[in-house]
Prior knowledge:
The chain is α+β, with helices and mostly antiparallel strands. About 20% of the residues lie in helices and about 40% in strands. It contains 2 helices and 7 strands; from the N terminus they run αββββαβββ. This is Tail terminator.
Amino acid sequence: MSNPPVPVWETIVQALEARLRALEWPGLTVERNRTVEVSADECPFLALYEADEDEPEEDSAAARKSSGVEIELYLQAPRDHDTPGAALGADLNGLIAMVEFAVLEGTNQSPSWWPDGTVDIRRGAISRTLETGETSLPSGGAKIEFTVDYWTRPGDPYTPGP
């Protein structure tokens, strides 16, 4: 019995996950579709979530689809810093930039990491949070939204479009 075919969207999400796993950030854990809260002990942590898909634009040759992904980042302030909140903010900004670059690198030239069918990836909003506690170090996070445009054949989610 052969394996079922892999949808074009799944190949894109797998490629995004691989890009995030390749990031060089000490101690970074990456997980797809995390279902439980991230604890401070697990930081630094990235969670990749699939978001909604818009109604496709179709003609007889291709279906253009737009799907969302959200990447959540979680960090804890360093213990050995005089101003842990400032250090946390700098680290968070650095990790946001690293994630954005990994996802969007070369979008003007159709990057080699894009699976067949991928047309465009655009960054959307970034939201940040900072948690402070009386007895614990500050922790922070961010959510980055991306939209991925891709082609399939009409009625065939397994075959990349033109």
